[in-house]
Each structure stands twice: as structure tokens, then as C-alpha cells.
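pls design
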């Protein structure tokens, strides 16, 4: 497995966004006309001290809308042992993320089904809040996609929650995982941040 393999898919393609091989961590990145954000995102991953990851970049060139972009994640067949969503307006803050998460997983006899980390969401602060919602399902708006890393089989089992048709389908997926997966590890590590807070179009833009 080549360390840090980057694979790009076009949203207009019907094929599953898929990179051959198996890495410890697969990073799923949705990208829509934010080249500076994507460059920062990828640079943060290339800085990893452990290259045992693969990034799949899902490129939208026409503006399919947030609900459709969410639903497309349900089509992704994972090629990593764990899956992490880090969109192009987010970037990784820890160059040792892969190394440390791998160490945590290996410290358990049974690999955790999900790992909750924390994200810097700009004016919304650091999510999830360790005081009010730590160790439980946070309310909608209290956690984001880049605060959850899930085992590949857990991704497969719950990925249909990305198809709820809601703008906040990321929360629907996260809440379903946290309510139903037995072995969840909560790590008070701030591992990602947003380049800018953005709100995508909820409707499909005809191209």
C-alpha cells in the first residue's frame, strides 16, 4: 500500500469512489471549488508521521447540493480499516493523528467500533463539548463529521444514514453510530479545524 495515496472521483460518475488496497485510515474528502482549502487539507495529511492512510477526494464540479453530497457518501465502499470524513474546508491539526489513533486501536483486545475526537469549529468553539456532552450523543449542532472515526464495518452498517435527505445528515449518521455501537472510545484530542465556516446550497444546481 502506497502511503498517502490520493484518488479523485467526479460526482458525475456513477462509479463508487474507491481506491484499491487497504490502509489503516481512509480519509473521505468532499470537494467543491475550494482549491485553497483542498490544498491545505491535503498538506495537513501529507505531514502525517505515519503514512498508513489513503485519501479519497470526491470532486463536485457542478454543485449538486448538500443533501446529494451527503447521500453520495453512502455509496463509498471503504478501503481503510477505519474511515474519517474530512471535507475540503477542514484540515488536520495533528501530524501524529494516524500514528496515535493506530496506537489507541492496538491497545484494545477488540478494535473500537468508533472513536470520538474533537474539532475546532471556529465561532462555534471546540466540539463536542467535554463538559455537557462528553460520553453521550450530543445534540444536533454539537458535533461534526470530522469528530468521528469509525471502523470500516461500522461505516458499512450505518452509512445509509447519510441518505436521510436532511442538510444535517452528518449528524444523523453520527447519532446512529453513537446510539448503537457498543465499543466507542472518546479521546479529548482536537484533531481538525475548519478553514472557514461555510453553508452549502441545499438544492441541486443544474449544470
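designed seq:
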Amino acid at each position: 500500500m502506497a502511503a498517502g495515496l490520493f484518488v479523485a472521483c467526479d460526482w458525475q460518475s456513477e462509479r463508487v469512489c474507491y481506491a484499491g488496497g487497504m490502509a489503516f485510515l481512509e480519509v473521505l474528502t468532499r470537494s467543491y471549488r475550494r482549491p485553497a482549502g483542498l490544498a491545505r487539507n491535503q498538506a495537513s495529511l501529507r505531514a502525517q508521521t505515519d503514512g498508513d492512510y489513503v485519501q479519497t477526494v470526491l470532486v463536485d464540479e457542478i454543485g449538486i447540493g448538500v443533501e446529494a453530497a451527503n447521500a453520495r457518501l453512502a455509496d463509498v465502499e471503504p478501503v481503510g480499516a477505519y474511515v474519517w470524513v474530512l471535507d475540503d474546508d477542514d484540515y488536520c491539526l495533528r501530524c501524529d493523528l494516524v500514528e496515535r489513533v493506530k496506537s489507541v486501536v492496538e491497545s484494545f483486545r477488540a478494535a473500537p467500533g468508533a472513536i470520538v475526537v474533537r474539532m475546532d469549529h471556529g465561532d462555534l468553539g471546540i466540539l463536542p463539548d467535554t463538559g455537557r456532552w462528553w460520553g453521550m450523543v450530543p445534540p444536533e449542532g454539537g458535533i461534526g463529521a470530522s469528530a468521528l472515526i469509525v471502523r470500516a464495518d461500522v461505516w458499512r452498517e450505518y452509512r445509509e444514514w447519510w441518505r436521510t435527505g436532511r442538510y444535517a445528515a452528518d449528524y444523523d449518521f453520527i447519532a446512529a453510530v453513537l446510539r448503537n455501537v457498543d465499543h466507542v472510545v472518546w479521546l479529548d484530542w482536537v484533531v481538525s479545524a475548519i478553514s472557514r465556516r461555510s453553508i452549502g446550497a441545499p438544492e441541486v444546481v443544474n449544470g
